[in-house]
Amino acid sequence: MSLSLPAFADIQDAAARIAPHAVVTPVVNHAALDALTDAHLYFKCENLQRGGAFKFRGACNAVWSLTDEQAKCGVVTHSSGNHGNALAIAAATRGIAAHVVVPEGAVRAKVEAIERAGAIVHRCAATIAAREAKAADVQQATGAVMVHPYADPRVMAGQGTAVLELWQQSGGLEAIIAPVGGGGLLSGCAIAAHGLASAIRMYGAEPSGAADAAQSLASGTRVDHFVPNTVCDGLRALIGAPNLEALREHRVEVITVSDEETIAAMKLLWQQLKLVVEVSSATVFAAVLKQRERFAGRRVGLVLTGGNVDLDALPW
Amino acid sequence: MSLSLPAFADIQDAAARIAPHAVVTPVVNHAALDALTDAHLYFKCENLQRGGAFKFRGACNAVWSLTDEQAKCGVVTHSSGNHGNALAIAAATRGIAAHVVVPEGAVRAKVEAIERAGAIVHRCAATIAAREAKAADVQQATGAVMVHPYADPRVMAGQGTAVLELWQQSGGLEAIIAPVGGGGLLSGCAIAAHGLASAIRMYGAEPSGAADAAQSLASGTRVDHFVPNTVCDGLRALIGAPNLEALREHRVEVITVSDEETIAAMKLLWQQLKLVVEVSSATVFAAVLKQRERFAGRRVGLVLTGGNVDLDALPW
Prior knowledge:
Chains A, B: Its cofactor is pyridoxal 5'-phosphate; Ca(2+); Mn(2+); Mg(2+). Chains A, B: One of its GO terms (biological process) is D-serine biosynthetic process. Chains A, B: InterPro entries: Ser/Thr_deHydtase_PyrdxlP-BS (IPR000634), TrpB-like_PALP (IPR001926), TrpB-like_PALP_sf (IPR036052). Chains A, B: This is Pyridoxal-phosphate dependent enzyme. Chains A, B: Pfam families: PALP. 2 copies of one chain form a homodimer. By secondary structure, chain A is an alpha/beta fold. Chain A has 2 domains: 8-54 and 152-313, Rossmann fold; 56-146, Rossmann fold (3-Layer(aba) Sandwich). Helix content of chain A is 46%, strand content 15%. Chain A contains 14 helices and 10 strands. Chain A has helices spanning 8-18, 31-37, 55-65, 68-71, 82-94, 108-116, 128-142, 153-170, 184-196, 212-219, 241-249, 259-273, 283-290, 292-295, and strands at residues 27-28, 40-45, 75-78, 98-103, 120-124, 145-146, 175-179, 201-207, 253-257, 299-304. Chain A has a 6-stranded mixed β-sheet with strand order 1-2-10-7-8-9, sandwiched between helices. In chain A, helix 1 (8-18) packs across helix 3 (55-65). Chain A is globular, with a radius of gyration of 18 Å.
C-alpha cells in the first residue's frame, strides 16, 4: 500500500465522519435508458450533494480529519470551481476559516458562491505556478492547512464514500464508471469498490480533449504536460501522481469520449432522466452509450458528479 | 365514505399494483432551504417519476386495475399534457392501446412525446366540450375505457401512493403540501396521509390566477366556471367534484400564491436544490416561503410534481 493513498478502512471512516454533514444522494434508474443501453444503469446523483457536487465529500472529510490544533487556523486551497466552494461549505460546518485562491478570469458566479459560503477569496494570476505560489503564501501567512483538490488522501477517501452508498442503494454492481480529471473521485471510488467486491470492473470517462489519464495509463508514464481542449471544465486538470497510481493498482480502464458525444449524453440525461448535470458529469453516460457491448447485460453504477450549470448557457 | 373516492386500502392496493412499473422517487433535503424557511423540508421528487411526472402513478393504477376483459380495447383520455403521456406509457406496460384526445393548439413537443410513447392521438377543437365529445366518440367507437385525469378514484388512489413513499422515506411528517389543479393528486394524498396518521396537516398550493379550489372551499359551493390566468399550465383545470369532496372531508387548507412567487420559488429550487421542476411544482415551495409561520419548526413534505420543462423557455 502506498503512503499517499487511502485504504478501504479510511473510506469507511470518512463515511462516518461526513455523515452528519453530507447528503446521502439518491440513486435513480430509468427504464428507457436501460432499454437504450441494454444494461441496468444506477445513476448516483451527486449533483444533489451539498454545494451541488461530490466535491463536498472530500472537502468535508479533510476538514473533519484535522485535530483541533491543526484546524484552528483554517484550510486553504486553490480552485475556481466546485472544490473551492465545497471547502468553503465544509469549513463552515466546523466554524473554521477557508482560504480559496482564485485565478483571474474565473467565472464570477462561482467566485460569488465561494464568497457566499463564507470563504476568504485570494486573487492570483491565471497560471498554475501563480496559483500554487499564492496558496503557499496564504498557507505561510495564516497557518492554514492545504487541502489539495485531488492528490490529498483525505480528499480521495471522502470521494470514495459515494461508492459505499451507491453499492448499498443499488443492491450490488458489476461495473462502476466515474469521470476522471485530477482523479480524486475515480481513485477513491476504485479503492472503495474493490474493498467491497474485488470483481467490480472500474472505468473512468475522460474527454478526448483532456485524455492525459488514458495516455498516462497507456504509456506507463504520467503525462505531466498537456493543453486541455474540452467543454468539460471540471475535467481539465492533469491526473495527480497518487491518483494515477491508484488507477494502475486497481486496473481502471479509461474510456475517452468526444465533446459532441458528451453534450448529446447530457441532453439525453435531461430529456429522459430529468436531471440537469454538468457537462463533465455526462461523460460517464456518453462512455456507456459509446461502448455498449462492454456494459450490455451488466449492472452499472454511474457517478453524476455535479449540477452547477448555467441554464442560460447550455452547451446544446 | 363516498362511492367516488378511494379508501386508504385502495391506495395501499395501488402501491402494490404499480410497484413493478413505477419509480420509487427519491426524497431530498437541503440544509440551506431548511435554514431559509426555519422548517424541515422533505421534497418528494416526482419530477423523476416515469414520464417526468406523478401522473404515471394514477394512470398506471387505472390501467392495471382493469380486468383482461375491460382492458382488451384499451384506454382513452383527453389531455394535452402529462396525464396523456402517463396513460400512454402505462398502457404500453400492459400492451394495450391508449387513445389520447388532444386539442388543437397543444404544445407540439408534448403531442410528439405522447405519440412516441405509443398512443393513438385524436385531434379535436380547443374547447372542453369538444374534448369531451371527442373522447366519448372514441370510447364508443373503440370500446376503450375512459380514464379521467383526476376525478377517477383509481387515478386518485394511484396519486396517493406518493405519500405512502414520502412518509416512509422521511420517517414521518407533520404537514404535507401538494399543488392543486383538478385535485387528483391532492385528494389522493390527503386520503393517504390520514390513513397513515390523522394528525398530519394537509395543504394545497394553488396559483392565485386559478384559485377555484380555494374559492370553492371558502364559499361552500364548487366553482364550476372560471377563466384561469396563470403560468402554471398544469394547474389550470377546475377542481373535480369528488376531489373537492375529499378536500372538505380531510380539512385540506389551500394556500394561494402569485405567479411571481412561484417563479421565484422555481428558480430557488434550481439554484439550491439543483432540480429543474415544472412551474406548477414550485407552487408548494412558494406557499411554504409565503406562510413561513405556519410551517416553522415542522417536518413538511412537499410534492414536486413534474419536470417536463422546456429549458429554452424558462419563465425567469
